[in-house]
Design a protein that fits this description.
Blueprint lengths: L2 H15 L33 H13 L10 E4 L2 E4 L14 E7 L22 H16 L2 E6 L11 H9 L5 E5 L3 E3 L6 H7 L8 E5 L15 E9 L2 H12 L18 H13 L4 E4 L1 H4 L13 E3 L7 H26 L5
Parallel strand pairs: 3-4, 3-5, 7-9
Antiparallel strand pairs: 1-2, 5-8, 6-10, 7-8
Length: 348
C-alpha cells in the first residue's frame, strides 16, 4: 500500500474508533491540574448507552480475541507459552478498581496533539499522543478507569518526577494504578491487567511491580545491579505503598538518603533515585518483572516487550505502531465477517 493511502486508511479507522473521544474535555481554567476519568460517561438520549459504553463495545469487538479470561491458563505468542503457575489471585474482573494512568506536565492541546479540540487528523498526530490513545483504548476495552493527569512543572526537580506525585494523588481511589510513560504501550490489547497480576503473582503484599532494564552498565546502579524501569509501574493500594511513595518523593531532600539530591535533575531522575536508594529499603514490597515481558521492543533480543512495549529508542514511531495494531485487528474482524458471508454463499 502506498504511504499516503496507508496514512489515509489509518485516519479513517481512527475517526471511527475515537469518535467518542469528544467527551474528553479541556477546561482552560484548570491548566495546572487537568484530569479525565473514564467512569464519567455522557448519555446518548436515543441509545440508552453512554458514549463510554458504546466505545467500549466497539473496542471489545475489535480487540476481544474471543474473550481472554482473567484466569486463562496460558498465553501463546511467537512460539513461546506463558503459563499461570499458581492458583489465580484474581478470578473476576476488577473493572473500575483499576486505573490506567498518564501523568505529564504538558497539556497536549496544541496542533496535532490528542487534546486539541478541532481538526483531528490521525496521520499528523505527534508520537506521544499515540501512546495516550493506546492507554485509553486499553482501559476502555477492559472497563478500567482512565485518567490523563496534568500536574504543574516541578520547580526543584525534573518533570519526570511528577509520576510519583501522580501515583500519590490517584492511588487512594483504586485497588491498582497502572502508570505508563507515553512511549510505553500495551502490546496485546485483549490481555487484561488481572491476568498479568495472576501471571506475575502480584499478591496483596506487593506494593510495586516494575520491569528490569536491559543488561548493560548504563542501566546499572552504583552497586552494579540493574535498574527497574519506571516507564511502566503497577502500584497496589496498601499502607506500605504510600509509605514508599512518600519516601521516594522525599528522596532528593536527603533527609533519609544522603546523595539522593543529584537525581533531582541528573538522568535517570526518579528512576535512579528508586534504584539507588528506595528499593534497597523496601525489597520485599517490590516485584521486579522480566525485561523481556514488560520492557523493550519486539525485535530487541534481550528485551522483547511481550506484554508491554517501551519504545525508548523508537519514540518517533509510536503513533504508527498504535495505528497499525488497531488497523490489523479491525481488518481481522472484517475478514471474519467476509468469510462468514462467503461461507453462506452470499459472496462466492
Amino acid at each position: 500500500m502506498a504511504p499516503h493511502l496507508r496514512e489515509l486508511t489509518f485516519t479513517c479507522v481512527f475517526v471511527l474508533l475515537l469518535s467518542s473521544l469528544g467527551y474528553f474535555t479541556w477546561n482552560s481554567s484548570h491548566v495546572s491540574s487537568f484530569s479525565y476519568d473514564a467512569r464519567q460517561g455522557h448519555t446518548h438520549a436515543d441509545s440508552g448507552l453512554t458514549a463510554s459504553g458504546q466505545l467500549q463495545s466497539t473496542l471489545q469487538y475489535i480487540f476481544g480475541e474471543g474473550g481472554f479470561s482473567v484466569t486463562e491458563p496460558s498465553f501463546n505468542y511467537n512460539g513461546a507459552t506463558y503459563n499461570i503457575s499458581n492458583d489465580p489471585i484474581h478470578t473476576t474482573p476488577l473493572g473500575n478498581d483499576i486505573l490506567i494512568l498518564d501523568v505529564d506536565t504538558r497539556p497536549f492541546s496544541g496542533n496535532h496533539q490528542i487534546f486539541h479540540e478541532t481538526n483531528f487528523d490521525w496521520s499528523k498526530l505527534e508520537p506521544h499522543s499515540g501512546g495516550i490513545v493506546n492507554h485509553y483504548m486499553y482501559a476502555q476495552t477492559h472497563g478500567y478507569a482512565y485518567q490523563y493527569l496534568q500536574l504543574p512543572n516541578p520547580t526543584d526537580r525534573s518533570p519526570t518526577w511528577v509520576k510519583v506525585a501522580g501515583l500519590l494523588q490517584t492511588l487512594p481511589n483504586y485497588k491498582h494504578v497502572v502508570f505508563l510513560d507515553a512511549d510505553a504501550l500495551f502490546a496485546h490489547m485483549h490481555i487484561p491487567i488481572e491476568w498479568l497480576l495472576n501471571y506475575w503473582s502480584i499478591d496483596s503484599t506487593t506494593s510495586f511491580a516494575m520491569a528490569l532494564d536491559p543488561p548493560g552498565i548504563e542501566n546499572e546502579d552504583s552497586l552494579g545491579r540493574r535498574h527497574v524501569n519506571t516507564g511502566f509501574i503497577i502500584a497496589q493500594n496498601n499502607p506500605k505503598t504510600f509509605e514508599i511513595l512518600e519516601a521516594w518523593q522525599d528522596c532528593p531532600t536527603e533527609e533519609r538518603w544522603p546523595g539522593c539530591a543529584r537525581w533531582r535533575g541528573e538522568r535517570f531522575h526518579e528512576q535512579s533515585a528508586f534504584g539507588e536508594y528506595v528499593r534497597y529499603d523496601y525489597e520485599e514490597y517490590v516485584k521486579e518483572l522480566p525485561c523481556t515481558e514488560a520492557n523493550g521492543e519486539w525485535d530487541l533480543d534481550i528485551c522483547r516487550g511481550v506484554f508491554v512495549q517501551h519504545r525508548w529508542w523508537r519514540t518517533a514511531g509510536t503513533r504508527q505502531w498504535v495505528g497499525e495494531q488497531a488497523l490489523q485487528k479491525l481488518m481481522e474482524r472484517v475478514h471474519e465477517g467476509l468469510m462468514r458471508e462467503h461461507g453462506n454463499g452470499i459472496a462466492g
